[in-house]
Amino acid sequence: MSSSDGARLAVDIGGTFTDVVVERGGQSWAAKVLTTPDAPEQGFLDGVAAALDRSGLRAADIEVIIHGTTLATNALIERRGARTALLTTAGFRDTIELGTESRFDQYDINLVKRAPLVPRNWRLPVLERMSADGDVLCPLDEASVMAAIATLRAEAIESVAVGFLHSYVRPLHERRVRDMILTHLPQMSVSLSSEVSPEMREYERFTTTCANAYVRPLVAGYLARLEQELEAGGFACPLFLMLSSGGLTTARIAREFPIRLVESGPAGGVIFAQKIARQHGATRAVSFDMGGTTAKLCLIDDFKPQTSRVFEVDRSSRFQKGSGMPIRVPALDMVEIGAGGGSIARIDRLGRIAVGPQSAGAVPGPACYGQGGDEPTVTDADVMLGRIDVEAFAGGRIGLDADLAKSAMDRFGSKTPIQLNAAEAACAIAELVDETMSNAARVHAAENGKTLTERTLIAFGGAAPLHAGRMADKLGISRIIVPVDAGVGSAVGFLLAPVSYEVARSHYARLEDLQPDTVNAMLATMVEEALAAVRDGAPGRMLIEVRTAFARYVGQGYEIALLLPSRPLARADAETLRVEFEKSYLQQYGRLIQGIDIEILTWTLTVRTEIADIPPLDPVAARPAAPAGGQREIFDCGQGKIVDAATVRRRALGAGSTLTGPAIIVEDATSTLVGPGYDAVIAADGSIVMTRRGFA
Asked: What integer pLDDT is reported at residue 3 of this predicted model?
């Protein structure tokens, strides 16, 4: 999607800030503006105008726009999507409420689960039934469909999810129901489970389809308005959307399957961190993305981020698996918590200090923004601690008021049981949010059987470089990398992502009785579907196929991913897959199970464009310490006292420049805090590499 002359533009709309990056001929320009929650396209256009003004480019110079947004995520969390109904097989209307019938907290007698997106009176039964083999056990009763359509009309339903039992094997009935709905209600938005998530496990399939239906009108309307505004502004280039899997897709696919956009912004950040890890030879890394509303972490091993087939949104208990809504779409495996610059501090009912997940957002924002907000936030704490240059914040476009931050800390401190002063209150907030993020990282690593101490922490997002050092201390990590353009890292990641699309199918097969012809026929149809989704966005580009099978011992509950050859399977491949499965199983669980066959449940096929090779960086010679631009008093929470810190503009630091903490490196989109226990050096790519003293 790039050329020697054309420019590319990336826009990441977050809960607090909208980040924009323009790239042309190896140069880039960034802008950060406040998000406009009521009309996200306005913040998009404001940021684009600011970035183009900085670059001296015009709309006609842009050859492609890549966009990631939290719109779908926020709609699910805030429950402000369309009036949605679910048409499902009679007898299964309560599947999305019963779930797996498990409790995410065994010992909480007051446990409350989130209500389903679709209330029970809008979950409408339809007489029909398919077998797991695709045989029609009960023909579709069209009279029951017509009764459901009458209810849709009477209840002013805006979007419909259709999820029938075993429709992933044979979608005949779902497709007929869609035809009937659109015949009588032509403006209705209809999502079929056999298209949104064509895999077994009806609970996850139904919830994913309901979520897709719930946000589809909202996302479609937003994209339509955005495309109109872009056209009116002189942009004649295609618009691509970032997917939760780390790839790009066209606006057409995004309108059909907006649920695949749920983790789009954070996914761009992981792609960005993946590039940095490869450049710096960090074979074991953890990406740390902290923005205005949330913090996201992802483990990266051998330069590959962890992926997942299912993730949860809207968790009622942030560290508890099973407390959220399961979404079964391809995604990068991240843990996301409500800990950002705008996270609000409060005193809970036990008299303890708590931070987040509620956020001041862009409106009214933290108290220091001077927009009417008066609740204490992490950003207010950072200002009070002296970490943020109030005149240089967001390139000087957003002026911060240190007095308002202090007032917020004073008010908050007076509410604490031990009457903290402003600096102590700010330190308490900063320490608590750092511990919350560190704990999330520990839990995420433990759940994946990983450790953190030997990893490199790659910090980006507007707030992460301020908190990375203290978080690394808590995790025992000794090396931190803050890349160039860290404040707009997710948007930069969009420019690195390939055009891609994944197709999944559930098809049961045992290795001892593998039928290659049946599997090959299914894979061939999957290839055609993936190519159809990618062709529009990658004309003339080299395309790569990645085929995967998800296997387990017969009767187990979790699968292991096995890479398949990008060719038709032969009977002899069954033994090769068995060897690969046993190798992966032994590595993950430490033992094999003898005498039990291996079964494959799900097959996936991804088609993507080639990814440019990223060579490692050349070493640089260390230079004398860079001259400080001044001194500032900061409150160091680790020592619990005020210390003097050197301040320097990042653009004044060339490759090889060194700094000894405490110091603050200031730039337009963020600032980096080099703690008292750290030394920093500027790498060949301009990244700040911080190393804890005593570690090489």
From this structure: 44
Please, what's the largest Cα pairwise distance for the chain? 82
What six digits make up the tokens of 274? 């993946």
Contacts 24+ apart (CB under 8 A), 40-47: 40/13, 40/69, 40/71, 40/222, 41/222, 41/225, 41/226, 41/229, 43/13, 43/18, 43/362, 44/11, 44/13, 44/18, 44/226, 45/229, 45/233, 46/18, 47/11, 47/18, 47/19, 47/20
For residue 264 the two structure tokens come to: 């789009």
| Mean of pLDDT values over 467-487 | 93
Q: What would you report as the CA-atom Rg of the chain, rounded to the nearest whole angstrom? A: 26
Return d(Cα 203, Cα 211) in angstroms, integer.
12
Q: Which residues lie closer than 8 Å to 271 by C-beta, 6 or more apart? A: 246, 305, 493, 494, 496, 497
Q: If you average pLDDT over residues 351-379, what whole number do you get?
A: 88
**Cis amide bond preceding 364, omega within 30:** yes
SS3 state of residue 673: strand
Pick the CATH number of 500-609 from 3.30.1490, 1.10.390, 3.40.50, 1.25.40: 3.30.1490
Q: Would 7-76+220-261 and 500-609 be classified into the same CATH topology? A: no
116 DSSP 8-state letter: P
Sequence-ordered list of residues with C-beta below 8 angstroms from that of 670, at least 6 positions apart, any chain: 461, 462, 463, 464, 465, 466, 486, 487
- Please give the class, per CATH, of domain 7-76+220-261: alpha beta
Mean pLDDT computed over 42-52? 93
Question: Helix, strand, coil % (nearest 5) of the chain?
Answer: 35, 25, 40
* Averaged confidence pLDDT in the chain: 90
Separation between Cα atoms, residue 323 and residue 332, nearest integer Å: 19
For 404, the enclosing helix (H) or strand (E) is helix 402-415
Domain limits, the chain: 7-76+220-261, 77-219, 500-609
SS3 693: coil
Token reading at 167: 């429709």
Asked if 651 contacts 643 with a C-beta cutoff of 8 angstroms, the reply is: no
Buried b (16+ CB within 10 A) or exposed e, 152-164: beeeebbbbbbbb
- For 109-158, how does the pLDDT look when each residue is reduced to its tens digit (9 = 90+)? 777 778 899 999 999 999 999 999 899 999 999 999 999 999 999 999 99
Kind of pairing, strands 479-482 and 159-163? unpaired
DSSP string, 22-58: EEETTEEEEEEEE--TT-HHHHHHHHHHHHHHHHT--
How far is the CA of 16 from the CAs of 44, 70, 191, 264, 673, in angstroms? Answer: 12, 10, 30, 16, 21
527: CB partners within 8 A, 6+ apart: 545, 605, 607
Instruction: Please give the single-letter amino acid code of residue 537.
Output: G
Alpha helices in 476-542 (DSSP H): 489-494, 516-535
| Token pair for 691 | 């190393």
The span from the CA of 74 to the CA of 338, in Å, is 12
Cα(396)–Cα(393) distance, integer angstroms: 5
Question: In sequence order, what are the residues at sequence separation of 6 or more whose Cβ sits closer than 8 angstroms to the Cβ of residue 30?
Answer: 19, 20, 21, 22, 51, 54, 485, 487, 488, 491, 668, 669
Q: Are strands 671-674 and 663-666 parallel, antiparallel or unpaired?
A: antiparallel
pTM of the model: 0.89
Which residues neighbour 120 within 8 Å (Cβ) at sequence distance 6 or greater? 93, 94, 97
How does strand 543-553 pair with strand 598-609?
Answer: antiparallel
pLDDT above 80: residue 398: no
DSSP 619: P
590 CB-near residues (< 8 Å, 6+ apart): none
Phi, psi of 651 (to 5 degrees): -65, -15
Helix ranges, 513-668 (H) = 516-535, 573-589
